[in-house]
Design goal:
Blueprint (H helix, E strand, L loop, with lengths): L1 H114 L4 E5 L2 E5 L1 H15 L3 H14 L6 H14 L3 H14 L6 H14 L3 H14 L4 H13 L1
Antiparallel strand pairs: 1-2
């Protein structure tokens, strides 16, 4: 019985050991599975984080790409605007230049128009005076016609000038050239009238002695030697130091 008990005890002990070993194996399998699960969980977590990072990077790259495209479009728009502004600036510069030229032309035109009415300083036969631009032009025009040898036309122009500008200081030289134009057309009587008018108007004028000599020449042409001698004598007395007086003395010698 004792042996039976011993065998039973041995069997029980063996069973116990077997059970204990089995539990130990089972425990070790559970730990391994747990470790594997944890490792899988970590791998999954790492993978998930990597995927999120990748997506984030992709989204960021996509956003950056979009931002770059937006920036490029903005740059193109700015270039277009700058080109437009440059064109407008060039147009405005041209318009400003045109406006400045028009203003300059207008100012010049106004000045020219004003200059037609503003008195100008002139010097005729050594006499300086202020004259209206219109009378200056007309006198010079008549004198130009005279110097071209068209004495009849010059005569008409000087007559018209004297009638239009009776108070002008141009009248004295105008009478001188009118008398010469009449002398050239053999209108001696009218020439004498105008030469004497010059002498009476301004006896101190530089043309006065020559006008007296011209009166004597007209008298000679009119066959009035007596009147010519008196005129020449008066000339020598009134203007003894002039070239006209020298010429008068020579004429008197011939007339005697």
């Amino acid at each position: 019985m004792h042996a039976k008990y011993l065998r039973s005890s041995l069997v029980f002990s063996a069973c116990l050991l077997a059970a204990t070993g089995l539990r130990a194996g089972l425990f070790e399998d559970d730990e391994a599975r747990k470790a594997i699960l944890e490792l899988r969980q970590r791998v999954e977590t790492v993978r998930s984080d990597a995927e999120q990072s990748r997506r984030a990077a992709t989204d960021e790259n996509a956003g950056l790409g979009k931002s770059l495209l937006d920036l490029q479009r903005q740059i193109e728009l700015m270039r277009a605007e700058m080109s437009t502004l440059r064109g407008l600036n060039e147009q405005m510069s041209r318009e400003l230049g045109d406006l400045q030229r028009r203003q300059k032309d207008l100012a010049q035109t106004v000045n020219e128009r004003l200059s037609r009415f503003e008195p100008v300083k002139v010097n005729v036969d050594g006499v300086e005076f202020q004259a209206d631009p219109a009378e200056k032009r007309e006198f010079e025009s008549a004198l130009s016609v005279f110097r071209k040898g068209d004495f009849a036309s010059a005569q008409s122009l000087f007559v018209a000038f004297i009638g239009r500008y009776a108070g002008s200081q141009y009248v004295t030289p105008a009478l001188f050239w009118l008398g010469n134009a009449q002398y050239a057309t053999r209108d001696y009587k009218e020439a004498i009238i105008n030469f004497r008018a010059l002498i009476a108007r301004n006896p101190e004028h530089v043309r006065a002695p020559e006008s007296v000599l011209s009166v004597a020449n007209c008298q000679l042409e009119l066959k009035d030697p007596k009147g010519a001698r008196k005129t020449l004598t008066d000339l020598i007395k009134a203007y003894p130091e002039t070239e006209a007086a020298v010429a008068a003395k020579e004429r008197l010698l011939v007339l005697k």
